[in-house]
Amino acid sequence: MRPERIVVGECRGGEALDMLQAMNTGHDGSMTTLHANTPRDALARLETLVLMAGVDLPVRAIRQQVAGAINIICQLNRLRDGSRKVTSITEIVGMEQDVITMQEIFALEQKGATQEGKVIASFQPTGLRPKILDRIFSQGIPLPKEITALFPPPPGYKPSTK
Predict the structure, then answer these.
(1) 158 vs 139: CA distance, rounded Å
(2) How distant, in Å, are the alpha carbons of 18, 96, 102, 106 from that of 75?
């Protein structure tokens, strides 16, 4: 079997190690969910879940696996009006010594609320160019016009029609 995508519904325990190992086997895409308060907390939680597998792995090895497997963290939060919104898109950049490095690419800016209490917010770029774009452009993956307007593709970029 050669799956093109690996999707794990939610990581809640030791299966996080299996998911992380599967993500590091060269598949084009993988996705999972887990509960955490921030993107940084998500990395710490994933590390804890991997340790729950009962395999004696050094923390640095786990972090290297995480940094190699995960490109993007999409953080969703429940806002004060009860709605759920994407509040942050953060990119995993790599590692510096024992720390996984990351950069926030987009963030939800809350600007207030309507008289009915509905949150007024807009999703804004932080101004940092995602490093993953180079790989996306080299593979010809089509992107929405809103993204290519913010982050222009290199000359000669032709999105795939597949």
Answers:
(1) 9
(2) 22, 23, 13, 10
Contact assessment for residue 64 and residue 20, using Cβ atoms and an 8 Å cutoff: no
Sign of CA dihedral 59, 65, 67, 70: negative
The predicted model scores a pTM of 0.89
Q: Which residues pair with 124 in a beta bridge?
A: 107
3 state SS of 113: strand
Q: What is the mean pLDDT of residues 130-136?
A: 92
Cα–Cα separations (whole angstroms), residue 73 to 2, 53, 98: 25, 22, 19
Binned at pLDDT 50, 70 and 90, residue 63 comes out as very high
**How do residues 70-88 score in pLDDT, each as one tens digit?**
999 999 999 999 999 999 9
Among 153, 108, 143, residue whose Cα is nearest residue 126 = 108
Within 3-144, residue ranges assigned H as helices are 15-23, 39-51, 59-69, 132-138
End-to-end alpha carbon distance in the chain? 22
CB-CB contact of 98 with 86 (8 Å): no
More confident residue, 160 or 38: 38
